[in-house]
Structure formats: C-alpha cells, structure tokens
Amino acid sequence: MNHKLLPCLLAATLAAAALPAAAQSAGEWTLGVGVHNVDPKSNNGTLANGTLPLSIGSSARPSLTVEYFVRDNLGVEVLAAWPFEHDISVKGLGKVGSTKHLPPTVSLQYHFNDKGTVSPVIGAGVNFTTFFGSKTSGPLAGSDLSLASSWGLGLHAGLDFRINERATLRVDARWMNIESSVRVDGQRLGTAKIDPLVYGAAYVMKF
C-alpha cells in the first residue's frame, strides 16, 4: 500500500473544505459500519540489537464508528473493530509468529459541507492498541511471544458521499502511531514500529 494515500486524501479534504458549509447539528449521533485494512509501514523495526529486521503483515476486518456532535460540525468519534490479525516475519527466517490486536481510537473531528454531495471530515485523537492471542511458528515455535500495549496519536481524513438525508458512504484513511515492546520467553528483544495506514469504506447513518 502506498503510504502517500493519507496526505493525498487530506489535501483533497482541505480543498473541499472551501465549499459552503452547513451544520451537522449538535446533539446528533452517527453510526458507521464498514471494512478497514490495517497496513503497517514497510520498516517495522528490528530485534536482537538490530540484527533481525521485522516485517508485519496487513489485515482487513469489519469496523464500527460511533460519533456524537458536541457542537455543529464538531464531533467526538470512537472507532472500534473486529480483532485484526497480523503475521510477523523476520528477514532471513521467514514467518516466526502472529498476533491479534484491537485499536480503539477516540478522535475530535470537524465536518465540512455536511449537506453537500461530498462532505470532507478531518480529525485527530488518541489511539490505544492492545495485543493478544500471539503465537509462534517456524524458528520460534514453542516459545512464548508477547507484545506490549501501545498509546499514540491517531489522524483521520475522509470524504462522505451523500446517499440521502440520513446516510452517507464514507471512504477514509487513518494514520496511527503504534509501537510495541516485543518479548520472547519473557526476554525483551526490541520494539515493533507498526505505525499503520488504516484505510477503507463505511456506511454511515445519522440519528
């Protein structure tokens, strides 16, 4: 996945922000149901004092968002998803394990041109990622693999395509700062620098 997607989407969002704005009313809620892919950056860090380069695979899962508008056009969104699962590989050794994670994210978001055909949205917030269900394979088979939880920044940019007064189709991308300490059999081996681009589409309903 080309990680230039988020800057491009952000640029399109800001350009569309010049369109006339109409209020997304305070007190309203939206619910979004979709599918998103977590695509870690290409360089995921190293283990064992820099001798073992990591590679973490991508994963697509159903996603859910709930947003409450605290002011016109300004909302607080909570992102949730079905657990993502990623293969973990080491250069020269191949696949050495896998892990699952949940990345709940709370963002403050601003919506532009809400009543228009195309409505941009931008946001920023805090991501918490917890890892679980880690398994080992190949050279690490039989070992205990664990990844520590992570707190970090989350950025969001999207475009809503109006279907009717109460529904839109959203395409969006997020960047999340996710770094996790990696342990094998209790010994810290290094840090996994995941920092993924999360992109996808959702059907968003207003209440």
Contiguous runs where pLDDT drops below 50 for at least 5 residues: 13-23
Largest sheet: 8 strands, antiparallel, barrel
Strand content: over 45%
CATH 2nd-level architecture:
Beta Barrel
The number of E-state strands comes to 15
Q: Record the strand order, biggest sheet.
A: 1-4-5-8-9-11-12-15
* Amino- and carboxy-terminal Cα gap: 34 Å
Helix count? Answer: 1
Shape descriptor: elongated
Average pLDDT works out at 88
Short recap of the structure:
The protein is mainly β. It has one helix at 5-16, and strands spanning 29-39, 46-47, 52-56, 59-71, 74-81, 84-90, 94-102, 105-111, 118-136, 145-147, 150-164, 167-176, 179-184, 187-193, 197-206. Helices cover 6% and strands 64% of the residues.
